[in-house]
């Protein structure tokens, strides 16, 4: 449904399959009898975590499909931040969304979409909902452990043109028709949804329309909470087009889900859609297709402002603020280079992305049991499994004050704490080969079946051993690098900008360290990613690394403007020319990324621009 890739893309890499061979039985049982297991899971979780204070504002998300039983997993913070407050903007012209250099191609693309919509449905569209992909500058694989990240939106996006149909008063269902501009790859779908019922989504089936259903599901849940039991959803006719590469690490799924949720909210009479609400429902909605995302992708897609990166924090609440790069000489450019190795999180989750989510949550619980006083419970939080390394972080320093942190700034205290956590993790998690279920269960004081219910009942993972040491070290060290990057960016900007090479290199070194950690500790790189990074560095890049989930996809490179041509030529000579690529792939292999704008609604004028 986006450019690049096909329905059978994202084949599992053979080496990874050999490393991970065991499928958990409890996950299969849960899919057969989800409500039977929900209360027992909540009970087990209460032995490890403590529920949030009653004064916290919470919103229930039915992660286990039950309307009535609220488990500890169901609790997500719904706090508001002034920095994030405000509605999704309504654009009156494409110039409100795209930069001048992108307008010609985007005008042609949107006009084609609207023409195709009228051909498909026999009448013009009334509204277009839009959400972009993103590139992550630094902070890889730490958002779902609730540590801060620094992404920025890109020009590539998902756009959904739609019209609204009334649901008859006596109808027990409402109808949605979803079509794709690339109809040869992604056939149209029509589905009836019962009034008041959940949207059925089979996460085991790799179906493009599931992403729309995910956004629909989250939006309907919010609308029902707002309007009560008498709410009757509108029918919709939708045509979508996406140009974010699938499996490229640029958050194609988050763009599609966020735009879908926005479209459903607008279609059902929401004249203004709150950015925070849209972000929160998109985060949880994407989990319905079997991907336990952390929140960075959706935050960047919804909140980004043109010309700035976005510093996103998840604890104690979801906050975001724009971040601007200082003037440098040579000027800095960000290049995005595709590896053309596809890694689809929904397909490869059991051995890649979702496995890392489980390993990080396990590491938090393990460290808590090993290092905190007996009986210490972790705070329930908004991470995918309700247990996070950040939760351990909070619990550890509630019991272990840093004497030298008195009078330190919040940033200095956070850095000091992370350095301590890195040290204690190395001492507590000594196995480099990974831990078995039996070993982890013993430390946590639960049985192996109970361990699987707590950590693996929401999704399938295949692993004999869980590399808790490596995953925890990556998270704590990467969280520290984010703070260091922000400090260099905002507190140590050069006063003399005649030559900022040394300053540029300091930023680049942190990006390079992230790539090293992703390759060695998190094991989410790929030989092709490593090759693109090597070539870029040898030809002038200050910092090069993977972006997104990894295991393929895209790379991001901080390159001086006067070296951009040299880096692109080297990639063509040493990498792209050695692969069988279409002309379209060659043209889109490398792009100079400029910070783009976030989600927007576009009200069409008589069906046109």
TrEMBL record:
<keyword id="KW-0547">Nucleotide-binding</keyword>
<keyword id="KW-0067">ATP-binding</keyword>
<dbReference type="InterPro" id="IPR006204">
    <property type="entry name" value="GHMP_kinase_N_dom"/>
</dbReference>
<dbReference type="InterPro" id="IPR013750">
    <property type="entry name" value="GHMP_kinase_C_dom"/>
</dbReference>
<dbReference type="InterPro" id="IPR020568">
    <property type="entry name" value="Ribosomal_Su5_D2-typ_SF"/>
</dbReference>
<feature type="compositionally biased region" description="Polar residues">
    <location>
        <begin position="1"/>
        <end position="27"/>
    </location>
</feature>
<dbReference type="InterPro" id="IPR019741">
    <property type="entry name" value="Galactokinase_CS"/>
</dbReference>
<dbReference type="InterPro" id="IPR006203">
    <property type="entry name" value="GHMP_knse_ATP-bd_CS"/>
</dbReference>
<dbReference type="InterPro" id="IPR014721">
    <property type="entry name" value="Ribsml_uS5_D2-typ_fold_subgr"/>
</dbReference>
<dbReference type="GO" id="GO:0016126">
    <property type="term" value="P:sterol biosynthetic process"/>
</dbReference>
<feature type="domain" description="GHMP kinase N-terminal">
    <location>
        <begin position="218"/>
        <end position="304"/>
    </location>
</feature>
<feature type="region of interest" description="Disordered">
    <location>
        <begin position="1"/>
        <end position="42"/>
    </location>
</feature>
<dbReference type="Pfam" id="PF10509">
    <property type="entry name" value="GalKase_gal_bdg"/>
</dbReference>
<dbReference type="InterPro" id="IPR019539">
    <property type="entry name" value="GalKase_N"/>
</dbReference>
<keyword id="KW-0443">Lipid metabolism</keyword>
<keyword id="KW-0418">Kinase</keyword>
<dbReference type="Pfam" id="PF08544">
    <property type="entry name" value="GHMP_kinases_C"/>
</dbReference>
<feature type="domain" description="GHMP kinase C-terminal">
    <location>
        <begin position="505"/>
        <end position="576"/>
    </location>
</feature>
<dbReference type="GO" id="GO:0005524">
    <property type="term" value="F:ATP binding"/>
</dbReference>
<keyword id="KW-0299">Galactose metabolism</keyword>
<keyword id="KW-0808">Transferase</keyword>
<keyword id="KW-0119">Carbohydrate metabolism</keyword>
<dbReference type="InterPro" id="IPR000705">
    <property type="entry name" value="Galactokinase"/>
</dbReference>
<comment type="similarity">
    <text>Belongs to the GHMP kinase family. GalK subfamily.</text>
</comment>
<dbReference type="GO" id="GO:0000411">
    <property type="term" value="P:positive regulation of transcription by galactose"/>
</dbReference>
<keyword id="KW-0756">Sterol biosynthesis</keyword>
<dbReference type="GO" id="GO:0004335">
    <property type="term" value="F:galactokinase activity"/>
</dbReference>
<protein>
    <recommendedName>
        <fullName>Galactokinase</fullName>
        <ecNumber>2.7.1.6</ecNumber>
    </recommendedName>
</protein>
<keyword id="KW-0444">Lipid biosynthesis</keyword>
<dbReference type="Pfam" id="PF00288">
    <property type="entry name" value="GHMP_kinases_N"/>
</dbReference>
<keyword id="KW-0752">Steroid biosynthesis</keyword>
<dbReference type="GO" id="GO:0005829">
    <property type="term" value="C:cytosol"/>
</dbReference>
<feature type="domain" description="Galactokinase N-terminal">
    <location>
        <begin position="116"/>
        <end position="163"/>
    </location>
</feature>
<comment type="pathway">
    <text>Carbohydrate metabolism; galactose metabolism.</text>
</comment>
<keyword id="KW-0753">Steroid metabolism</keyword>
<dbReference type="GO" id="GO:0006012">
    <property type="term" value="P:galactose metabolic process"/>
</dbReference>
<keyword id="KW-1207">Sterol metabolism</keyword>
<dbReference type="InterPro" id="IPR036554">
    <property type="entry name" value="GHMP_kinase_C_sf"/>
</dbReference>
């Amino acid at each position: 449904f986006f450019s690049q890739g096909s329905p059978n893309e994202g084949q599992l890499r053979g080496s990874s399959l050999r490393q991970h061979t065991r499928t958990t039985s409890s996950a299969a049982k849960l899919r057969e009898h989800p409500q039977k297991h929900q209360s027992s899971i909540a009970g087990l979780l209460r032995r490890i975590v403590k529920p949030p204070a009653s004064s916290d504002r919470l919103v229930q998300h039915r992660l286990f499909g039950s309307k009535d039983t609220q488990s500890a997993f169901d609790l997500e913070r719904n706090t508001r931040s002034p920095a994030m407050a405000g509605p999704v903007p309504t654009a009156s012209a494409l110039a409100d969304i795209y930069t001048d250099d992108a307008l010609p191609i985007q005008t042609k693309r949107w006009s084609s979409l609207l023409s195709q919509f009228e051909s498909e449905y026999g009448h013009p569209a009334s509204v277009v909902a839009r959400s972009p992909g993103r590139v992550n500058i630094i902070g890889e694989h730490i958002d779902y452990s609730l540590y801060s990240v620094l992404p920025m939106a890109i020009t590539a996006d998902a756009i959904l043109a739609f019209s609204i149909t009334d649901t008859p008063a006596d109808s027990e269902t409402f109808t949605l028709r979803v079509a794709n501009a690339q109809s040869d790859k992604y056939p149209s779908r029509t589905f009836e949804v019962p009034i008041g019922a959940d949207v059925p989504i089979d996460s085991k089936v790799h179906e493009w329309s599931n992403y729309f259903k995910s956004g629909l599901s989250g939006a309907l849940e919010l609308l029902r909470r707002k309007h009560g039991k008498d709410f009757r959803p509108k029918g919709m006719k939708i045509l979508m087009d996406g140009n974010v590469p699938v499996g490229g690490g640029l958050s194609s799924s988050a763009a599609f889900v966020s735009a879908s949720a926005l479209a459903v909210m607008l279609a059902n009479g929401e004249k203004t859609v709150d950015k925070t609400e849209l972000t929160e429902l998109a985060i949880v909605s994407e989990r319905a297709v079997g991907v336990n995302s952390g929140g960075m992708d959706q935050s960047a897609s919804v909140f980004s402002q043109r010309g700035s990166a976005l510093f996103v924090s998840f604890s104690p609440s979801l906050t975001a603020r724009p971040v601007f790069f200082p003037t440098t000489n040579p000027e800095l450019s960000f290049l995005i280079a595709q590896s053309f190795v596809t890694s689809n999180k929904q397909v490869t989750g059991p051995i890649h992305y979702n496995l890392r989510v489980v390993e990080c949550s396990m590491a938090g619980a393990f460290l808590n049991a090993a290092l905190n006083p007996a009986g210490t419970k972790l705070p329930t939080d908004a991470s995918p499994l309700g247990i996070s390394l950040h939760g351990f972080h909070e619990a550890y320093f509630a019991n272990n004050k840093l004497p030298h942190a008195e009078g330190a700034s919040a940033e200095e205290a956070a850095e000091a704490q992370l350095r301590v956590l890195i040290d204690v993790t190395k001492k507590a998690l000594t196995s480099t080969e990974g831990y078995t279920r039996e070993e982890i269960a013993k430390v946590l004081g639960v049985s192996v079946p109970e361990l699987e219910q707590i950590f693996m009942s929401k999704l399938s993972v295949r692993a004999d051993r869980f590399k808790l040491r490596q995953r925890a070290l990556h998270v704590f060290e990467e969280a520290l690098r984010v703070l260091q990057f922000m400090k260099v960016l905002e507190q140590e900007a050069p006063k003399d900008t005649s030559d900022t090479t040394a300053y540029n290199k300091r930023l680049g070194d942190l990006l390079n360290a992230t790539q090293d950690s992703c390759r060695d500790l998190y094991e989410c790189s790929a030989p092709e990613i490593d090759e693109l990074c090597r070539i870029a560095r040898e030809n002038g890049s200050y910092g090069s690394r993977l972006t997104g989930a990894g295991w393929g996809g895209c790379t991001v490179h901080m390159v001086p403007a006067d070296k951009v041509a040299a880096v692109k030529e080297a990639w063509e000579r040493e990498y792209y020319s050695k692969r069988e690529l279409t002309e379209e792939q060659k043209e889109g292999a490398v792009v100079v990324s400029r910070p783009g704008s976030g989600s927007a609604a576009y009200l069409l004028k008589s069906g046109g621009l």
